């Protein structure tokens, strides 16, 4: 029975590690997305840093990416940037690839 218990613990640890890695990649993606949007809005470096953190925090409002997309579309539209949800989703996908690559290269 201990062999089965050991395998079960190993799978649980692997699952926990995978979930943590996905969380980190998603947080990095959101930060990169915030920096991308800040550049488009012409924010200063200090404002860019604060905005990127705000985008990361926005992701905790609800499950999924809708909260982040809604925030960026609203903020960028308010700043006079002509962008729609599809444009933000495309940027989100691009930043996800970059974030994943950053974690792979770091390992």
Automatic annotation (TrEMBL):
Q: Which InterPro entries match?
A: ATPase_inh_sub_z, ATPase_inh_sub_z_sf
Q: Pfam families recorded for this chain?
A: ATPaseInh_sub_z
The name under which this protein is listed is Aldolase
Q: Which organism is it from?
A: Sphingobium cupriresistens LL01
């Amino acid at each position: 029975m201990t062999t089965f218990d050991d395998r079960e613990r190993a799978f649980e640890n692997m699952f926990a590690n995978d979930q943590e890695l996905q969380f980190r990649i998603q947080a990095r993606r959101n930060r990169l997305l915030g920096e991308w949007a800040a550049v488009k809005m012409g924010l200063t470096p200090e404002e860019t840093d604060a905005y990127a953190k705000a985008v990361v925090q926005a992701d905790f409002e609800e499950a999924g990416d809708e909260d982040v997309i809604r925030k960026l579309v609203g903020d960028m539209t308010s700043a006079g940037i002509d962008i729609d949800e599809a444009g933000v989703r495309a940027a989100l996908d691009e930043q996800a690839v970059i974030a994943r690559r950053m974690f792979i290269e770091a390992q």
